[in-house]
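As described in the Methods, two query proteins were run sequentially through the folding procedure within a single session, without resetting any intermediate state between them. The first query and its resulting structure tokens are shown here.
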Amino acid sequence: MLASRILSLIFNVLTIVPLYLLGERYIGKHVGLIASLLFLSSSFGLFIAHEARVYSLIGFLATTSSLLFLGLQHNPERLRQHLLLAVVNMLIFYSHYLGVWIIVVQVLSLVLIPRFRAAINSKYIYQYLTLAVLCIPQLPTIWNRLMTSGTNGTWISKSGGIADIYYMILKYTNAPVMAVVFILLTLAAVVFARKQRDQQTTIYYLTFWLWVPLTISFLLSYKTGFFLDRYFYFVTPALYLLGAACIHLMLRKQNTAKWLVYGLLCIGMFSGSKLQSSELRYSGYHKDVRPLATLMQESQKEENTAILVTPEWFTKDIIYYYDFELFTTYFDEFNEQAKFKAPLRQQHIYCTSAPLMTAELADYNQILMIDENQGNLHITDAILTELEKEFAQDTAYSLETRRIFKYTRK
């Protein structure tokens, strides 16, 4: 397990380098340091760093891309840097489709921010042509995914109101008070930057980087849900940089007061930080399923007992602990289901997202059902309705937030 997570940890740590440089080069002394401390004290960042997923890589690439992009406003003729930026943005695009927001933000910056617009030259054409060519192989896949999600929806809930944006910021800032503070700081930074020509361009870019993906995605999620905390982890460096930048600009001539406020901001983040992600409701966090695997093993000792696990995908989470050798055969959840299910059925385990016909359970006198359908209770109700044609419920209880049902044949 450690080997599968080590890359996430490495990329999360590496993000500190471009994050620090962004603050020090383009905003002011110590801004990069404070932003890095805020980044390191994020509970959500720690959670992502220990997840065997791509999000820490995207955070690192997005921060590196922004460092390269901001560098071009001072040296727009450097073709090598343009091409390097194209490669980094290509890696973002291939890592996760929503990483395309970084490219959108940079294009908007070129169009809307005067200093970027003044720096546009033919090298930018080479950059975007290179990026377009590199991304061509992935375009059919992303088009298919967009059409599928747009037509059939996703597993993620649609936007429920403006509070969703607040809760998104809350996950990145550890505590409700800090969420409000950071929202105010990011907005105030734009106001203070209007009088500071040297930092103005950077602050505007960071504002686009943070708020364009969040606000537009929030609005689009009224149609198709995809407004999920880990999907937008790549905006967190901008959040911390804007927080530190606002204090720097607001108190630039009052050094003692500035460091006092820096200290309060960092203490606020650290005090709300939690090492155990189980204490917070982050998407992608899975509670310990080992007790469920143990329950299945104990039920196997009882004669004529079948085990139902629902929904279908949840089976692989439990099988990791129940039978690791079998788990290794689960290569593809779409194409290898038959290969995975056959040995399970030999052990009287049925993974299903739909009611089983009572005829399939004719040889059993007892049923143990493990239910993970927290957001799709209609599936559970349909399965239970079918079961109750032939079986009577003995007990129902919760184990690790999953519902457990035991039935005996009538």
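Immediately afterward, the second query was submitted; its sequence and tokens are:
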Amino acid sequence: MLTGVVFVALAIQLFKHAGLITGGTTGLTFILFYLSDIPYGLILFILNVPFYIFAYKVFGKEFTLKTFACVASLALITEWMPHWVSFGNLNPIFAGLMGGLMAGVGILMLIRHKASLAGVTVLALYLQKTKGWRAGNIQLIIDLAILAVGAAIVSWQQLIISIIGAFALNLVITSNHKTGRYMGM
């Protein structure tokens, strides 16, 4: 699971460096981070608290404990990552596309190990489980709504690149995760 968390943390570092946003709880975290002096990891952890409760009720103790561990790890790693990795020259389009792909692969790794990064992923997995709706499609719709809110704080160029990143992320999940295909969710 740590590999999945590190993939997502590196994707977040790409997005941060390029001034991009993304969808889901991570996107809300970016919006609040850009508007405040509060550390990114702290915002991420706090925003996910209601989703731990929901996850416990819907998916049980094991999933929730793994999810809690993943979110706590991500919150810490995103704070440490700038000390480990920096980008002298980073093309924003590359950052959006590669960040989206890496985040999608990281989230997929977690889902396959009966874990998540809480937030929108928990809701999307729940709706896939109960309604049969594709988790990636649900997540994309919510992501686009959050990106629309983010349009107020980033340039239109950054917004377009952020949307490309969200599509890349959700394409990975939609094309690779189907209920019952794996031992995970």
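The radius of gyration is 15 Å. We note this only descriptively and draw no conclusion about the first query from it.
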